[in-house]
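User: Predict structure, ligand fe (iii) ion.
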Amino acid sequence: MPHDDHDHPHSLLPSDPALRVKALETILVAKGLVDPAAMAVILETYETKVGPHLGARVVARAWADPRFRALLLKNANAAMAELGVTGRQGEHVVAVENTPGTHNMVVCTLCSCYPWPLLGIPPAWYKSDAYRARAVREPRKVLAEFGVTLPEGQKVRVWDSTAEVRYLVVPMRPEGTEGMDEAALATLVTRDSMIGTGLPLAP
Ligand code: FE
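Assistant: Predicted complex:
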């Protein structure tokens, strides 16, 4: 019997996870464990103030300043702090640098760990089962689907985030950017290039 023969009141309801989140929120607020105003400030912060433009500043500085680059690779949090980039989900950041020999790519196979202070809230695909499973099994195929084809000789190294450690990919500085200042360089650094599923824009 065709499934759409009868009315489907269930389909008018939000999805199951959305309902559960709403139920949980209602209880937490009712019990006074969560202040809706405080929650609004956090959401607003990550929607409008924190985002990939902060990670882009860090990468651009690393491209422009060898001292900063060395510090970033040795102690990412110290380097980030110089630019005022700090915050939750970014307490232990490790920066991994792309080279002609190695392309780095980040995943969280367990859930969706992500360096919020640098990149904001993760995109939906980063949290998907498909990405989490396939990024480790067939990274080149996943990269191809993102439109990234790497040279044969460049190996792919996949970093699996943990509850503690978050990774930042430092892409290679594009050719033809010699005369550009840091602000201009930052405009070339995309979110995906800092996850490793993309490359920086050409100038
Ligand atoms: Fe996770």
